[in-house]
Amino acid sequence: MLNEYLRKILTSRVYDVAIETPLHIAPFLSERLGNQIWIKREDEQPVYSFKIRGAYNKVAQLTEEEKARGVVAASAGNHAQGLALAAKELGIKAVIVMPRTTPDIKVRSVKARGARVVLHGDAFDEAFAYSQKLVAEKGMTYIHPYDDPEVIAGQGTIGMEILRQMKQPVDAVFVPVGGGGLVAGVAAYIKALKPEIKVIGVESTESACLAAALEAGQRVTLPEVGIFADGVAVATIGEETWRIASECVDEVITVTPDEICAALKDIFDDTRAVAEPAGALAVAGVKKYVERYACEEQNLIAVLSGANVNFDRLRYVSEVAEIGEGREVILAVTIPEEPGSFQRFCSLLGKRPITEFNYRFGDSEHAQIYVGVKVGPEPGARAELISELRAESYPVMDLSDNEVAKYHIRHMVGGLAPASVTNERLYRFEFPERPGALLKFLRTLGKRFNISLFHYRNHGAASGRTLVGLQVSDDKIEQLQGYLLELGYPYWDETENTAYQLFLR
């Protein structure tokens, strides 16, 4: 088997359109992990994904009769763009069937590469069924995204390039796994020539079909898959890819969506590349591998498989990346409901940056706050912070691993003011995003007026945005104005703001 795939890979016709992508060292990640971490940059392909390799290799080897009838695929992802470009380069008619729910940017990308797009059905299964109808009625050739020997061989050229480019001994290569075409091709080549090199598949915990198959000893179908890492959202490993992977893949590591987000940030920090979630799987796997085996001074290579990410996805990624890295702690803390409480609490945090602070007046005795705090990368930093707060008699609950708290409650803390909140005025502030700015704010106002509402989030900008509710009687408004001038931060009175009146008053 390996000799046959070695021949196929060595004779693949991928370089008519694909490029030999660079292999880059990741300096920050390498220093942090104590190993040499290398990134194989498949995001630099013409379609920003490795898929062009397999698609082109398959289409290039069709007979003239098959080429004349055209090719078809059902896909809403990278395979669609790879096949569209491959067919365009070879002058072949291509039809890509996509669900009607496919984002417009993906539809436009496929059309821009010369393929005809047919929108059919609301889910992939319906699109796939229609593509098979075109095969039956028009004799078009269906190009499978992963479960085809020529597609697998095309992807295997990545393994060939890695061994050619890497001048130092390689300890392990980490490969994202969806349907298995990429890991099968890379593993087949590496194991044929360098069987001592580990090939490690990396899957999302939401779609770990290879891990499930290895545990069962046969292909299985997952009951459901998550689509955060949509490029690998496959329920069943391919038949041919399973045959290869079951013999050639040394281990499978699964990673969570939070860990994928942290890896996306690592990739950006080291390369300035914005990977797609599936593209960052391998880097997330490297980090987990190093932690699991405590290895040092090894050469570990991660395949960055693609960069086709919707821009609106980046907001979610940035919010959870620090949590996925273990560098942000989300806490629910109970503090006394009295002037100066916020200041005393923030003083205990020391120089740890606050990433988020949410509070709404509840009763006259206790205040329940939702706070995000950055901690250092060293082991135990999270536990140390919690211990310090509890030592000062603060009731603390760690919500860092609470899915509801991370993705929902943080946006819902607050609500309408209880009847006991009187004379509330709302102010919006901007203050410099530097250590001590928030404490200065609290020292100036927090001891003099009761804070009935507080919301702050770190936006990564030079100025922090804060919304504050202050209980100020009419006879104290002039005094408040003096303190605001003393504070020196830009502010706006939002007491008559429509949104505030509708949802918070």
Describe the structure.
This protein is an alpha/beta fold and 505 residues long. The protein folds into 3 domains: 2-49 and 149-312, Rossmann fold (3-Layer(aba) Sandwich), CATH 3.40.50.1100; 53-142, Rossmann fold, CATH 3.40.50.1100; 326-503, Biosynthetic Threonine Deaminase, domain 3. It is 41% helix and 21% strand. It has helices spanning 2-10, 27-33, 51-60, 64-69, 78-90, 104-112, 124-138, 149-165, 181-193, 209-216, 239-248, 257-271, 281-293, 313-325, 341-348, 381-391, 403-407, 437-446, 477-487, 498-503, and strands at 23-25, 36-41, 71-74, 94-98, 116-119, 141-142, 172-176, 198-204, 251-255, 299-304, 328-336, 354-360, 366-374, 396-398, 424-432, 450-457, 463-471, 491-493. Strands 14-11-13-12-16-17-15-18 form an 8-stranded antiparallel sheet. It has a 6-stranded mixed sheet with strand order 1-2-10-7-8-9, with helices on both faces. A 4-stranded parallel sheet has the order 5-4-3-6, sandwiched between helices. Strand 3, helix 5 (78-90) and strand 4 form a beta-alpha-beta unit. It is elongated, with a radius of gyration of 27 Å. The mean pLDDT is 88.
Q: What is the C-level CATH assignment of the largest domain?
A: Alpha Beta
CATH architecture of the largest domain: 3-Layer(aba) Sandwich
Total strands: 18
Low-confidence stretches: none
Describe the global form: elongated
| Largest sheet strand order | 14-11-13-12-16-17-15-18
- Tally of alpha and pi helices: 20
The rounded distance between the terminal residues' Cα atoms is 71 Å
Average pLDDT reading: 88
- Derived from helix and strand composition plus strand pairing, the structural class reads alpha/beta
